[in-house]
Amino acid sequence: MNKADRAGRLAGKTMVVTGGAGILGHSVANVAHSEGAQIVLFDVVGEFSSDLTGSGAQYLQVDLTDDQAVERAIAEVGSFDIVANIAGGFDMGPTVFETTDERWEAMQKINVTTLRTMLRHAVPVLQRRGGGSIVNVGALGALRGAGNMGAYTAAKSTVMRLTEALSDELRHQSINVNAVLPSLIDTPRNRADMPDADHDQWVSPDDLANVICFLASDDASAVHGAMVPVTGLV
Fold first, then answer.
1. How deeply is 70 buried, as exposed, middle or buried, from its count of CB atoms within 10 A (0-12, 13-18, 19+)?
2. What tens digit of pLDDT does each residue of 113-131 get?
């Protein structure tokens, strides 16, 4: 299906994108907007400019670890159809036995607490409107443990198990809950960290965004609790 064929797939829907000021969040917002969605961006950064904000998109500065802040932001948005939980973070870290409580808690906070806080306040909105879609971001690398990535893979594994559990709880309420499992995403930071890698093998943010928007659409209405690998050529 080319872009012209899928234009309008999200028409009439409102999508809330967490981590909307980041590379992937912004790509998801752009693709969703091109497919007809109204966009609401959540992020912790105070200053953010985008061509999307000039096309009717709404930007709210929100600390996703602050329960009351998320509650206020959700109330301000009102009704919506889709939540794309893109906020998260990666850190290689030391070995498991050398990982400090602070590093462990940081990985849990940015990947798990942000998700749980959003779900706490967003799911009731979808329940009241009678349906919707939630798409989370796990990690292909979190399908098993890996050296020097213990805190990260534990956090992303939690995201994946929560996705499956929530899907089991909501699928009979016309709410689809799924996750993408990307491998290496082609971002400026990853290129800087791995300058000698073959970047053409990595997943582009736009390609990953296309999969997320498919899972958010009515085309994926029969898909529940899926962990969708998005690996590029890796």
1. buried
2. 999 999 999 999 999 999 9
> CB atoms < 10 A from the CB of 11, how many?
11
Q: Which string of DSSP letters, residue by residue, matches 146-208?
A: -TT-HHHHHHHHHHHHHHHHHHHHHGGGTEEEEEEEESSB--HHHHHH-TTS-GGGSBPHHHH
CB-CB contact of 74 with 121 (8 Å)? yes
d(CA 80, CA 100): 39
Say what the pTM is: 0.94
Give the CATH number for residue 85: 3.40.50.720
Look-up: residue for tokens 């292909």? 140
Number of domains in the chain: 1
Q: Report d(CA 24, CA 211) in Å as an integer.
A: 12
DSSP state letter for 78: -
Rounded CA-CA distance 122/204 in Å is 28
Query: Is 234:181 a contact under the CB 8 Å cutoff?
Result: no
**Structural domain span for residue 152:** 3-230
